[in-house]
Amino acid sequence: MNMDQALKLLKENGYKLTKQREYLLEILNHNRSYLSFNDIWKQFSKDFPKASYDTVYRNLYSLEDLGVVEVNRMEGEKRFRFHCDIEGHHHHFICRTCGVILPLTNCPIDSYRSELAGHVVEDHVFEIYGRCASCAV
């Protein structure tokens, strides 16, 4: 996802392009790693000191519903970032040092199909955390 794609999706779905919404997208666009709400709020509130927490939360979850933003739970809190460019179901490797995110195309749920015979898997979460090759040295 990039800024142009995000703006296009918002327009197509009837959202007004307010300065606050555009600035929120700019924050996400300039930082490609996952950001906590507090990280986003610190940047956002500098330019919009009268904005409420609720405004930012509502917009982040609207962006998630549209597929602009993906949400991940890291270290006990939700984190947000622009949806990556990989189409379809996939997972990620996330570097805890620099924040680099690598998409993974293999899904581990496939290896559990025989153990789950007769069960219906409705959703799952799988992310790998560690240090990327650059940070591991």
TrEMBL record:
Q: Which Pfam families match?
A: FUR (PF01475)
- Name where it's found: Cytoplasm
KW Transcription (keyword) present: yes
Q: Which terms in the Gene Ontology molecular function aspect does this entry carry?
A: DNA-binding transcription factor activity; transcription cis-regulatory region binding; zinc ion binding
Offer a single GO CC term for the protein.
cytoplasm
Q: Which cofactor does it need?
A: Zn(2+); Mn(2+); Fe(2+)
Which top-rank group of organisms is this from?
Bacteria
Q: Which InterPro entries match?
A: FUR, Fur_C, WH-like_DNA-bd_sf, WH_DNA-bd_sf
Tell me, in one coarse class, where this protein mainly resides. cytoplasm
- Reply yes or no: does the keyword Metal-binding apply: yes
Alphabetized, the UniProt keywords read: Cytoplasm, DNA-binding, Iron, Metal-binding, Repressor, Transcription, Transcription regulation, Zinc
Binding residue positions for Zn(2+): 95, 98, 132, 135
Task: Choose any GO biological process term that the UniProt entry carries and state it.
Answer: negative regulation of DNA-templated transcription
Q: Summarize where Fe cation binds, as residue positions.
A: 89, 124
Cofactor remark from the record: Binds 1 zinc ion per subunit. Binds 1 Mn(2+) or Fe(2+) ion per subunit.
So what family is this one in? Belongs to the Fur family.
Its name, as the record gives it, is Fur family transcriptional regulator
